[in-house]
Amino acid sequence: MKENFIPVKKTARYFTIGEITPGIQRVWIVLHGYGQPASEFLENFSVFDDGSTLIIAPEGLSKFYTSGLYGNVGASWMTKDDRLNEIRDYIRYLDSIYNMVNTSIDLKNIEVNLLGFSQGTSTLIRWLENSQIKAKNIILWSGSFPDDVDPLNVRSYLNSTKLHLMLGKYDKIIDHKKADERIIRLKKAGIRFSLNLFEGKHEIPQQTLRDLMRYL
């Protein structure tokens, strides 16, 4: 048996809060976790909706029923199967969203913030390793730096931004021992970041998000 590949066109979906207008002062791109629909994930960020902010939630290219053969549908950025092609596909997809916005708003002149949650943290870092786009803040929430990215490859880029790690004290999904090892790895690579432990689980509590906003 021979494994074969062919590139195809695909229609990808994303959700937004706010409109692309000359009055936009900041843009957020937020990447959901495994099994989350982007529309549901985006609801966490309605607190940013102030008339001068555009929030964009791309959706993972793979969708599936989260329980059985019908019902709620979730999305995933990738799995371990054919992972390199899936990574290349979502990097092209995220580049397309960024470039689309950049044609309407000169993103060099406004504040850009990037956030990944859970599986979206690895997705975000892999994207930034390949496309080191302008960003003021990068937030890795309830996830960790992926093992397949050498921190040295992105050190100078990340140190030109503000990197924030958000971890819930009672998060049972995160392997805290591995998270600690990855934090040590970042420190050894000379990457600057702030580590924020919040009272919560594998989630984005609204009050924690509001508190973070005060320091961005």
Write the layout of secondary structure elements.
Blueprint: E1 14-17, E2 26-31, H1 38-42, E3 53-58, E4 62-65, E5 73-76, H2 83-104, E6 111-117, H3 119-130, E7 137-141, H4 151-158, E8 162-168, H5 176-188, E9 194-198, H6 206-213
Helix pairs in contact: 2-3
Describe the structure.
- This protein is of the alpha/beta class.
- It has one domain: 3-Layer(aba) Sandwich (Rossmann fold), CATH 3.40.50.
- The protein is built from six helices and nine strands, in the order E-E-H-E-E-E-H-E-H-E-H-E-H-E-H.
- Strands 1-3-2-6-7-8-9 form a seven-stranded mixed sheet. Strands 4-5 form a two-stranded antiparallel ribbon.
- The radius of gyration is 17 Å and the shape is globular.
- It starts with 13 loop residues before the first strand and ends with a helix.
Using the coordinates above, name the CATH class.
Alpha Beta
Indicate the radius of gyration in whole angstroms: 17 Å
| Mean pLDDT level | 93
Query: What fraction, in percent, of the residue positions are helical?
Result: 25-40%
Strand content: 15-25%
Strand order of the largest sheet: 1-3-2-6-7-8-9
Which architecture would the CATH scheme give at its second level?
3-Layer(aba) Sandwich
* Global geometry: globular
